[in-house]
Amino acid sequence: CEGAIKYMLILTDDDTLFNHALGTHDLDLVLLVAQHTQKDPKEYMLFLNQLQSYDEIYRKFKIDEHLGREKSALKYLMCCEGRFEEVQSFVEKHNLYASALQHYPFGTDQYKTIGRGLACILKERGNMEEAGVLFGQCAELRECLECLRFTKQSRLALSVGAQLELPPDEISRLAEQLAENLKCDGAHREAARLYDRYCDNADEAVEVLCEGGLYSDALEVSQARKRVDLISNIMNSLKVESEQTHNLLVEKRELAEKLAARIVVVREKRNQVGTGFEDMEHSDLYSDTTSITATSHTSSSSRRSARSAKGRKKAEMKKYSLKEGSRYEYFAIQEAFKGIMTFLAHREVMIRDMVNMLLLQGLLEPASKVVAAQQQIIEVVNKSVNTIWPPPKSDVVEEEGEVEPVSYPPEKTKLTSLLLNQFCGC
Fold first, then answer.
1. For residues 14 and 11, what is the distance between their CA atoms, to the nearest angstrom?
2. Are 140 and 118 a contacting pair, CB within 8 Å?
3. Pairwise CA distance, residues 198 & 133, whole Å
4. What are phi and psi of 403, to 5 degrees?
5. What is the pTM of this model?
6. Could you tell me how far CA 425 lies from the centroid of its own chain?
7. pLDDT (tens digit, 9 = 90+) per residue, 261-299?
8. String of DSSP letters for 174-241
């Protein structure tokens, strides 16, 4: 054994070998190693005698703490009886709340104490949902509710409010605050439910539903409340929304046509140059004085000089610029066209609901305008998909170690439109 120690001391320094021996928790081995090093016995004997004075579990804790093994040290410390205050301090110092919570059984005083400490930290950081749930686990329902009222967890917050037996007026104020959170996040249906059920405010519920384009839901609320006046408000809002939707569909169709026409021009110019990835603003297609090679080196030099976070963000945004002749115009056109397709897919249900409501109220003209606009843009999109993303021919071109970004079409490339005779029984 001594021969092995002497050999290892040739390969490593005294401190490293001493610490490795210490990590075995075998003080006899540590002493043997220390005696073969250049360490001063006055130093290590005082340290080893102090460790020897502790009971076995606490000694392992002190050793692992000394070696910087905080998680391992905590496990030993939590096994020591009567040292919970020391556990708290150690957990706070090294931010080991998660490890401590895994050790103590749920519902125990130790779990609640550690949990409250972590919940307070999460609350200070603005992680209200996580903090609220953790306060709830620690039976701190008031603190739990104070956190949850700033989140979108409306059902959980109202459940906690019920457990606290809050009076009706407090429940109403809580629901109103939660509804505002949900409305700002676009969850109009859930926000309206809170206004209607807990705040007894059908007017606000209907207004929120109309903001979200949920006209069928708005009509249901107004009829359930027997509020004929609200139906009139819904129809007025619906007419305005239908006109805005029509204009937006027309605007998107015109953009889709422009993109489809432009990408043909860009593709032809790329083919003429003989490469798909050059700075179009400075290539010989736009200037007779600058070569592609020079532009390439200029671009590379510019990229190397813009390494800051701001520079990288600006460079990323350039990829989506539709400026004619820009370096990434081809990619930007494809991404913009994909955005139109995504817009149409997301609006499909809302447009169907709107048309249903318009026809239900006998408003055939605005319904026809919306359906016609939708049919026209979907026809343009479906016809242009193969122009935007031509059949298999790689557009990936490497230049000076960089790969050109490539845009891929959405999974669903064939969109369907509403037909007016679906609603008219024709």
1. 10
2. no
3. 23
4. -105, 130
5. 0.66
6. 45
7. 998 998 888 888 755 444 444 433 333 333 333 344 444
8. HHHHHHHHHHHTT-HHHHHHHHHHTS--HHHHHHHHHHTT-HHHHHHHHHHTT-HHHHHHHHHHHHHH
